[in-house]
Give the backbone structure.
Amino acid sequence: MSLLAGPRSNRAFAPSGNIAQLRESATIAVSARAKALRAAGRPVIDLGAGEPDFDTPEFIRRAAQSAIDAGATRYTATEGILPLREAIVRRAGHMGVEVTPGQVVVSTGSKQSLFNACFCLFGEGDEVLIPTPSWTSYYEMVTLARATAVPVPGDAGAGLKVTPSMLEAASTGRTRGVMLNSPCNPTGAVYSRDELAALLECAHEHGWWVISDEIYRAIAYGTEPAASALEVAPSLDRLVLIDGVAKAYAMTGWRIGWAIAPRELSAAMTAFQSHTTSNAAAPSQHAALAALTNREAADDSVRKMVAEFRRRRDAVVEVVRAEPGLEIVEPEGAFYLFARVGSDDPERDDGARFAQRLLESHEVAVVPGSAFLTPGWVRMSYAAPIDAVVEGTRRLVSLWREMSR
Ligand code: GLU
């Protein structure tokens, strides 16, 4: 008889206290719904997923194939293979910062790196400041660590970005950390070097930990690359830098991210990961190694992909600008357009109503702003072919016109 048979199997599942407040990832859910509709034959334009639509560059795919043939099929060190961690150290070196391979922990996507950092740093009674809107998973990760996520609403007149005084106003004696993300998902806003430096200075003065998620750093449309916390932090003592290969190199499915952290924390994150997932997939680590070490080919691929994202960004902004009154955040990086479609009242949840109608009657998938704690907005990804992006934006604008009459 199966162990699952009998009365016990009929018991309703009762969630543990660990996940009492857990909600499914809205970004993932929208993408899954769009895929399901497409599979059912509906010609949905999927602008929900935050995922580059390009193939992983060939030289990276080939490197992974060769690595598999050469035996990269076994466990590696929990924290990742040394050549990859050394390549990550060299990247930091190009920003003028000296770190050691021991400070680097490679994980199964930057999402796991973020979770490891939150779980090892924060706990019951701690408060963590989250500039808002922010990527949906930050709030959940902090809550899963049983700390309190404290949303800090950004300035609507300044790309929904926050300033040191906004962080200070939201802080208490229990504040332990702050999550930064530039270029920002979901707004596409980019913090200038001075703005980022001011936030880091503020965190330093107050003794807060900073988790700086820089997964979109390569995708920026200004004349300079987006600034890194590594370049401007007054000290690396309480800084965790998060990055990965997913967005810059079109490698979302390979699941390789990493954290650079002070040695005691990197050791703790490694120990934690040794009990959860062990090492990130060995062939993926070799693929990431190729992306970081074959500089010429990598730079060339990134340049081409960013040029295409820029072309789409310009096209999207042109469509929106032709519609006076539709408020957006000026997209300066990443591949998102954040548009206001209603009021900030969470009860009304205008963004969700808008996104649902856009999907059901106009066959365009976008993510409701409530996923990022800004219910009056929607996020549209332009990581899709330009014709689809332009058509999707037109439909979004036309629904906005219809609903705001
Ligand atoms: N980060 C992407 C997004 O915001 C991918 C989906 C996810 O992991 O949330 O859409």
